[in-house]
């Protein structure tokens, strides 16, 4: 733990992270203990310093509370640092910047070499961040200590200025001392150094002016005249005395050496134009820029490209650190590249700190750009040296590449991201050369490779080199064994970059054991994870932060993820039975069970999104009936019926929920062993209604509703009522549709369940459509579309788009109908939801038939008939009879009475087998059209009347979508309209 008093009171951990000490009195207590520099402070003295003449009721107890708060703030070291002794409280620490400052002053005064002395004084002054004890300097208990420290600082500043004058650094010093003199205008020694620096820099008039200003200020404020030494200096300046010039022996000699050319790139830099521009902009504004990113992302190439064309006065110097190791290696590498040796170089064997100081002194007054490449394995050495160089040499700029930040004051970070997909594809194709011809088929494989290699340029180049031998598909199919695949293909690169494994090995070797363990634990989350999930597998926030800083983990708060190649590397090192997998599975099972109740009610949106974020992680969890039960409703709402069925068939075969998912996917209607509760019974009924089987749904809905009401389950009651409303649509009971639908909508609205509101409103919209209230139907569907989009219910969005398309069809806007149905079909196809896709396809067929685009209509209806027959699997199914009727109407409009008759008779036979009066009436209406086409008007009208009576007897009114065909056929039979579309 380190403490700072040379400025605002501050505390840092050993690795430089700030420690927050809360509450003013606790900070004041810390300041008081630090003032005494390890000497005990009596409790009553501390209490007086903190509260003065207005102490709390029990100052001793209150002081003990503040001491406890201070210890807690200091963490595990708190009890060792803040100790109570017989003489009082004491803070045991020599890691205080004021103590370091005093030690550096002592070392500087004992140092004979002027350059070393200047460096030590510079280091001492660099510790100051503002006035000593800045936030408490008006308190009596720090006033004397702060004043003493300030006097020592000014004395050190004067000594530093005089040593630098002796070294011949007058030009830089003249610029730097102006602010210090303005801050301390009455310090004669400081003013004298300033005058000498100005004079030696050729600014004689300014030197005399500052003397005059000092003399007038001294007279005005104190009634005194300048001291004899300063007065003599003024006279010497007026005489231009030779003794004022610097000693030649101490002057820094100019360097004639120039940097060697930077390495030339053998290939173009793809997709990095914006990065180059941004790094150049940072270099203009900052003296230290660090380019960070994971191994293989292209940090070195970006750095070199960014400095191309830059021409600082003394050039750009590249220091490659990847092969260096050992104490003092960084300073030695920089000194070696720069070729810097001066007359003050000491004998071989001088310490690392001495070499760094001599290097810093040799850079004073020079203007150059230093590139430090691959710093991550020597990060602390690099940070210490860079901080020293930048403090000492104002004309120096540094561009570093590293997997983590240097954490030096003034550093500008530029994280390099992997290439976005289009640029990654371009790079891959360019590197593959003639071995790859891009086509629609190969483009898919290339995109797969680029995505799975995370857009890392080096990995893409290694993979591209394999295309000639394996082809692009062969490379893509072998990426599960990427470390064997991407090896031995890149000559001329450093060893650490010749294989993908070597790239990650290099990063892995820089990690501690704890960091490696944490990285492997994070790799068990294929979809990335939250900080909470990371902690569940033993990765605390501190470790997570360390890995982010080292570019091993990608942070996109609140989530964290590993690049796929790093994840694969880590998983290779884990045994299949490693306990971390159990920890991960337990966490996600608990999360799914915690989410389940929130998926019904006002927090539905929040928890749907949360489970969406964890999709890949939930799929990685070992299969269990508990997880299936927790996720079943989520799978259903998200339209992932196939996923739900596969999972349930594996862990809970034969259950009611598994059977429902089987029906929802068109996989058949298996035997159900029983219903564990009312919700399972309702869910199976819901699946029957999905298939249009109102008869099978009816008893289940009735039983479920009674059980829900008995148990006080309001959500279940609303769901059952929504099912009854939908069942009433099939039965033609419009009064029941409205009664059940409105009640369901009311309850779902009270509960705040948006999905439920969506279902109830959809049924009510269909009722409005039947009643000819197209405006209300459209409003309800648009509101449903908004809700579905808000909840990311893409399948429901598809259904609502198709429903709006049906309204457009009924109102005669065929272009709008076609566009809406096409959008719905694409959305359903993206979700692999065949039922929603089929609903949209039928709508497109209806639109095409109304527009007389008979070829398109026949193709679409033909596809629908094939799918519906496969779904029916030889059993009666309403969808088959509907499509047969549509094809029959189409043949009739084309004038093909024979084909139309055959299709309607087939539909009639299927309808009778199904026992559905609606389907029978629809076939009879189709046969009426055939009779009208053949001139058998009386028979046509009789069939229409028969179909209408059948509909009326069962309360099944003519659907709005079919009303146009019946009107057209009736007009044709009465001789008032030609054959063809209405």
From TrEMBL:
InterPro entries this protein is in? Answer: AAA_22, BTAD, OmpR/PhoB-type_DNA-bd, P-loop_NTPase, Sig_transdc_resp-reg_C-effctor, TPR-like_helical_dom_sf, WH-like_DNA-bd_sf
Q: Which UniProt keywords apply?
A: DNA-binding
Q: Which residues form the OmpR/PhoB-type domain?
A: 1-93
UniProt record, GO biological process: phosphorelay signal transduction system; regulation of DNA-templated transcription
- Which Gene Ontology terms cover its molecular function? ATP hydrolysis activity; DNA binding
Q: Is Nucleotide-binding among the key words of this record?
A: no
Say if the entry is tagged with keyword DNA-binding. yes
| Residues in the DNA-binding region annotation | 1-93
Entry similarity comment: Belongs to the AfsR/DnrI/RedD regulatory family.
* The protein's name: SARP family transcriptional regulator
In which organism is this protein found? Sinosporangium siamense
Q: What is the lineage of its organism?
A: Bacteria, Bacillati, Actinomycetota, Actinomycetes, Streptosporangiales
């Amino acid at each position: 733990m380190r403490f700072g008093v040379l400025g605002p009171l501050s505390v840092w951990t050993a690795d430089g992270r700030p420690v927050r000490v809360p509450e003013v009195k606790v900070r004041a207590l810390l300041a008081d203990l630090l003032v005494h520099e390890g000497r005990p402070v009596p409790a009553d003295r501390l209490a007086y310093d903190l509260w003065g003449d207005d102490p709390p009721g029990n100052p001793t107890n209150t002081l003990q509370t503040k001491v406890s708060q201070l210890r807690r703030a200091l963490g595990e070291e708190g009890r060792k640092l803040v100790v109570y002794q017989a003489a009082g409280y004491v803070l045991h620490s020599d890691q205080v910047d004021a103590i370091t400052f005093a030690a550096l002053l002592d070392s500087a005064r004992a140092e004979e070499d002027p350059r070393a002395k200047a460096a030590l004084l510079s280091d001492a002054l660099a510790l100051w961040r503002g006035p000593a004890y800045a936030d408490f300097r008006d308190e009596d208990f720090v006033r004397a200590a702060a004043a003493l420290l300030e006097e020592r600082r000014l004395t050190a500043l004067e000594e530093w200025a005089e040593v630098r004058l002796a070294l011949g650094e007058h030009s830089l010093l003249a610029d730097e001392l102006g602010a210090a003199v303005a801050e301390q205008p009455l310090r004669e020694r400081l003013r004298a150094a300033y005058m000498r620096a100005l004079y030696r820099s050729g600014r004689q008039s300014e030197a005399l002016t500052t003397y005059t200003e000092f003399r007038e200020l001294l007279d005005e404020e104190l009634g005194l005249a300048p001291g004899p030494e300063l007065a003599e200096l003024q006279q010497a300046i007026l005489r231009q005395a030779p003794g004022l010039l610097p000693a030649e022996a101490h002057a820094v000699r100019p360097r004639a050496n120039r940097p060697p050319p930077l390495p030339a790139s053998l290939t173009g830099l793809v997709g990095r134009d914006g990065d180059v521009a941004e790094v150049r902009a940072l270099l203009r504004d900052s003296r230290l820029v660090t380019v960070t990113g994971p191994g293989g992302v292209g940090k070195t190439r970006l750095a070199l490209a960014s400095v191309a064309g830059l021409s600082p006065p003394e050039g750009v110097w590249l220091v490659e650190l990847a092969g260096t190791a050992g104490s003092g290696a960084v300073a030695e590498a920089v000194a070696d590249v720069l070729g810097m040796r001066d007359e003050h170089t000491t004998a071989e064997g001088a310490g690392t700190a001495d070499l760094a100081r001599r290097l810093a002194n040799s850079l004073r007054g020079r203007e150059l750009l230093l590139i430090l490449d691959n710093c991550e394995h020597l990060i602390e050495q690099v940070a210490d040296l860079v901080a020293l160089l930048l403090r000492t040499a104002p004309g120096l700029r540094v561009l570093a590449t590293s997997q983590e930040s240097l954490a030096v004051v003034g550093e500008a970070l530029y994280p390099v991201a992997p290439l976005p997909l289009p640029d990654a594809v371009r790079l891959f194709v360019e590197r593959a050369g003639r071995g790859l011809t891009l086509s629609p088929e190969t483009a898919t494989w290339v995109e797969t490779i680029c995505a799975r290699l995370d857009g890392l340029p080096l990995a893409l180049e290694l993979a591209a080199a394999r295309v000639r031998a394996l082809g692009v598909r062969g490379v893509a199919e072998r990426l599960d064994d990427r470390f064997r695949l991407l090896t031995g293909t890149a000559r001329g690169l450093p060893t650490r970059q010749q294989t993908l494994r070597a790239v990650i090995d290099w990063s892995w070797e820089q990690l501690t054991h704890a960091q490696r363990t944490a990285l492997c634990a994070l790799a068990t989350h294929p979809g990335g994870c939250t900080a909470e999930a990371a902690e569940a597998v033993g990765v605390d926030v501190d470790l997570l932060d360390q890995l982010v800083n080292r570019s091993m983990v990608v942070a996109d708060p609140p989530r964290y993820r590993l690049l796929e190649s790093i994840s694969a590397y880590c998983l290779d090192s884990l045994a299949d039975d490693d306990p971390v997998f159990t920890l991960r599975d337990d966490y996600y099972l608990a999360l799914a069970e915690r989410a389940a109740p929130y998926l019904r009610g006002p927090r539905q949106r929040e928890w749907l999104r949360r489970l969406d974020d964890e999709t890949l992680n939930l799929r990685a969890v070992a299969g269990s009936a508990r997880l299936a039960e927790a996720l079943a409703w989520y799978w259903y709402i998200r339209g992932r019926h196939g996923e739900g069925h596969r999972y349930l068939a594996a862990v809970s075969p034969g259950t009611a929920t598994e059977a429902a998912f089987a029906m929802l996917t068109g996989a058949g209607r298996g035997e159900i062993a029983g219903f564990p509760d009312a919700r399972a019974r309702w869910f199976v009924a819901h699946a029957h209604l999905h298939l249009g089987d109102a008869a099978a749904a009816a008893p289940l809905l009735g039983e479920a509703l009674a059980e829900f009401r008995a148990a006080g389950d309001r959500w279940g009651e609303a769901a059952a009522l929504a099912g009854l409303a939908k069942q009433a649509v099939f039965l033609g009971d419009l009064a029941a549709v409205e009664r059940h639908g409105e009640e369901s909508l009311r309850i779902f609205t009270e509960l705040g369940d948006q999905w439920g509101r969506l279902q109830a409103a959809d049924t009510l919209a269909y009722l409005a459509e039947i009643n000819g209230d197209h405006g209300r139907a459209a409003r309800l569907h648009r509101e449903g579309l908004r809700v579905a989009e808000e909840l990311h219910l893409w399948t429901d969005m598809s259904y609502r788009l198709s429903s709006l398309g049906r309204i457009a069809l009924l109102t005669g806007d065929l272009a709008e109908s076609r566009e809406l149905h096409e959008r719905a079909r694409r959305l359903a196809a993206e979700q692999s939801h065949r039922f929603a896709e089929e609903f949209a396809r039928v709508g497109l067929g209806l639109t095409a038939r109304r527009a007389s685009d008979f070829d398109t209509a026949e193709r679409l209806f033909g596809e629908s008939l094939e799918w519906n027959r496969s779904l029916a699997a030889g059993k009666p199914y309403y969808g088959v009879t509907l499509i047969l009727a549509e094809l029959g109407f189409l043949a009739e409009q084309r004038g093909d009475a024979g084909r139309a008759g055959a299709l309607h008779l087939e539909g009639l036979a299927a309808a009778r087998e199904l026992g559905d009066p609606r389907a029978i009436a629809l076939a009879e209406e189709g046969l009426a059209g055939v009779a009208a086409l053949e001139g058998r008007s009386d028979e046509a009208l009789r069939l229409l009347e028969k179909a209408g009576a059948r509909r009326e007897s069962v309360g099944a009114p003519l659907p709005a979508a079919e009303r146009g065909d019946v009107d057209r056929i009736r007009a044709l039979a009465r001789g008032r309209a030609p054959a063809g579309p209405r």
